[in-house]
Design goal:
alpha+beta; 19% strand; single chain; 6-stranded antiparallel beta sheet; 10-stranded mixed beta sheet; 432 residues
C-alpha cells in the first residue's frame, strides 16, 4: 500500500524516472544531472509491476483466502523449480531428455554446474513450442530425475522432462575458460563484474598486466573479458585527462603501466588464432584502436551541451536469431552511463561484422527511464557488435550489462557472450 510514510520512496523505486528539466534563468540551459538518473528496480530486474489506481478493497481484488481486498503478509518465498515431474504416472522409461529455459538468469548457474560435472548439454537454436530460442537440453542418459530435481531446487529453475527429442539446429555447449582482466589501477567495474561472475557460478581467473604482457593465458583461456576501463589505463596504466591526473599518483614498480604494446600484440594474435574477446563500455575504445576495427564511436568528443546521459535506462532492439540475444526479449532496457554508440562501416576481407543490438530509429523511443539529452545522436546506432577477426571474434558491448550488479535483464547478454567460445555446431542425439 502506498498510504505509508515511505510512499514517495516506494513510488520512486518502482516507477520509471524522468529527470526534471530545471532552467535556472530565462533562456539558460537545463541544469544537468550530477550522476545516475534511473534506479527503477522493475525495469532493471525484469519484474512486472501493476499499479492499482484505486485502493485494493475498492477494486474488489480477491486475496489468498478469497476475501475481497484482503492483503496478507508473505511468510515465506515460493521459489521456481522443484521436483522434475515425470510423465506416465511417474516413470522415466518414456523420457528422452530434459530441458530448461534460457530466459531465467538462474539458467546459467544450472548450466555451469552441469558442465562442471561433465554432462552433455545442448543449446537449441530454433524456437521451441513456446517460441523461445536457446533452450538448454540435456539427453536422458546424461542425468536422472533425482539429480536434476536437486539442481532445480538449488538453482531455482524449473526443469522439464520431455518424451519427444527436439529437432533442428543446435550447439553443443562446452565448458568455457574465462579470463577477467584486472589492472593494477583499481577498477570498480572489474570488482562488480567479478562479483556477478562469482554469484552465477562462472569459473574464471583474473589476468593481471604481467600475464597480459607475457601472453601466458594462451592455451588455457577461451574468452577474455575486459570490464569498462578507460583506454589509457588499459594501455599505459595511467589516465590521460587533466582532471583525472590531479588525484592520480603513479604506482611503484612493478605495479606501474598497463598492457603495453607487447601485450596488445599478443592479444591480437590470440584472437586471430581463435580466441574470443569481450569488451564492455569504455574498454571498447581500446579494442577498436588495437584491431583497427571498422567501427567508430559517434559520441566521441561530443560536448555534454549536445549529448548527456550520465546514467539512464535506454531501449535497445536485439537481433533475436543471434546467440547473444537468446533468452532476452526483442526489446530490452540497457544501462547507459556516458557510454559509446557505434557506427559500423563495410569491413575488409579480414573482418566480418554483425550488429546484434541497436537503438530505435526515433529518438522519442530511446529513453525508458532517467535523463537523455541529444537522443537523436543515438538513432539507429549500434549498441552491441560482433566482429569475426581471423579464426576468433571480438564482441563490443557499448554499455555495462552488469552495472553494479543491478540490471539483471541484461546479465544474459554478458553470459551469452562469454559462452560463444564454448558453442560448437552439433547434431542432436537421437532418442534412445
Amino acid at each position: 500500500p502506498a498510504a505509508q510514510p515511505y510512499r514517495q520512496f516506494l513510488l520512486t523505486m518502482l516507477r520509471p524516472q524522468r529527470y526534471p528539466e530545471v532552467i535556472p534563468y530565462v533562456g539558460g540551459p537545463v541544469m544537468p544531472p550530477y550522476d545516475v538518473t534511473s534506479w527503477s528496480l522493475p525495469l532493471s530486474m525484469g519484474v512486472e509491476v501493476n499499479e492499482a489506481q484505486v485502493p485494493i478493497a475498492a477494486a474488489g481484488v480477491s486475496g489468498a483466502n478469497g476475501a475481497a481486498g484482503r492483503l496478507e503478509a508473505v511468510q515465506s518465498v515460493v521459489w521456481p523449480g522443484g521436483d522434475v515431474v515425470l510423465p506416465n504416472g511417474g516413470t522415466s522409461a518414456a523420457v528422452v531428455g530434459y530441458r530448461f529455459s534460457h530466459a531465467a538468469d538462474s539458467a546459467f548457474p544450472a548450466l555451469n554446474r552441469l558442465l562442471a560435472a561433465g554432462k552433455k548439454v545442448y543449446w537449441l537454436k530454433d524456437p521451441g513450442p513456446d517460441g523461445e530460442r536457446g533452450t538448454f537440453y540435456v539427453p536422458a542418459g546424461e542425468s536422472n530425475p533425482q539429480d536434476l530435481s536437486r539442481l532445480s531446487r538449488e538453482a531455482r529453475i524449473p526443469i522439464e522432462a520431455v518424451t519427444e527429442a527436439p529437432t533442428g539446429a543446435a550447439f553443443r555447449v562446452k565448458p568455457v575458460r574465462v579470463g577477467l582482466y584486472k589492472p593494477w589501477v583499481a577498477s570498480i567495474d572489474e570488482g562488480w563484474t567479478r562479483f556477478v561472475l562469482e554469484r552465477y557460478g562462472f569459473a574464471f581467473e583474473n589476468l593481471n598486466n604481467p600475464t597480459m604482457k607475457d601472453g601466458t593465458y594462451r592455451g588455457r583461456i577461451d574468452t577474455i573479458l575486459l570490464p569498462s576501463i578507460e583506454s589509457d589505463i588499459l594501455e599505459r596504466g595511467e589516465p590521460a585527462s587533466e582532471e583525472a591526473r590531479r588525484t592520480w599518483e603513479p604506482l611503484p614498480p612493478p605495479f606501474g603501466g598497463g598492457i603495453g604494446p607487447d601485450g596488445g600484440d599478443k592479444l591480437k594474435r590470440w584472437v586471430q588464432e581463435g580466441g574470443t574477446l569481450v569488451a564492455l563500455d569504455a574498454s571498447t575504445r581500446y579494442v577498436i584502436n588495437l584491431f583497427g576495427l571498422p567501427v567508430r564511436n559517434v559520441l566521441d568528443k561530443v560536448p555534454t551541451e549536445s549529448f548527456n546521459c550520465p546514467g539512464s535506462l535506454l531501449r535497445i532492439d536485439l537481433d533475436p536469431e543471434h546467440p547473444l540475444s537468446h533468452g532476452l526479449q526483442a526489446t530490452e532496457a540497457a544501462f547507459f552511463a556516458d557510454s559509446p554508440a557505434f557506427q559500423t562501416t563495410v569491413p575488409d576481407v579480414r573482418i566480418d561484422r554483425r550488429v546484434v543490438a541497436s537503438y530505435p530509429a526515433d529518438a522519442r523511443d530511446i529513453l525508458v527511464s532517467g535523463y537523455l539529452l541529444g537522443g537523436e545522436r543515438l538513432e539507429k546506432r549500434a549498441a552491441v557488435v560482433e566482429m569475426k577477426v581471423g579464426k576468433g571474434r571480438v564482441i563490443l558491448i557499448g554499455f555495462r550489462p552488469q552495472y553494479r550488479a543491478q540490471p539483471n535483464r541484461t546479465f544474459k547478454l554478458l553470459f551469452n557472450a562469454l559462452y560463444l567460445a564454448g558453442l560448437e555446431e552439433a547434431k542432436l542425439p537421437p532418442a534412445s
